[in-house]
Amino acid sequence: MSFNPQEMAKDILLRYWDGSLPVNPVTIAKKLDLNVIYGGADLELSGSFDADSHTIFINEDDSLNKQRFTIAHEIGHAVLGHGSSPRTKIRYNQANFQLKEYEANLFAAELLMPIEAINYMIKQTEIGLKEMAEVFSVSSQALEIRLKRLGYLL
Ligand SMILES: [Zn+2]
Question: What is the pLDDT of residues 84-107, one digit of tens each?
C-alpha cells in the first residue's frame, strides 16, 4: 500500500488534533498507540522507530524543537508503513536522498504546521517568520522549507 504523506497528516490532524498550537506530536503518537521513549536511541541518531514494539525513540540531547520534529517524522514512518527506521543526523541532500525520509519530512511538516493555521496567519495576521516559528514550535529552517513548498516564500 502506498500513502500520500500530506493527506495522511491532514487525516490524523482531523481525527486527533484538538486545534491548539503548537501541535503536540507526543499526544498524537499516543492516540495512534505508539510509545515515545526519550533516550535509548543510538546517540548518533535524532530518533528511530521500532515497528515491532511500536516505539519511537528520541534523542533527548537535541533541542526541543528538533525533538518535536523528529517525533512527528517517526510518526510518519509508522503511519506510512515504512517499517523500522533510523533517523540520522546527516542532512539528506541529493546525493543521499531517500524517498522514505523525504516522505516522513513532508508528513512531519504537515502535522506540525497545519495548512489551515499557516493560511490563516499569512492572510489574516501580520505575524513575522520568527514569531510564526515560535507559535508552531519549529525551527525557522523547518518553517521556511514549509512556506517555500506552499509558494509563500521564494
Ligand atoms: Zn526517517
Answer: 877 555 554 554 558 888 999 999
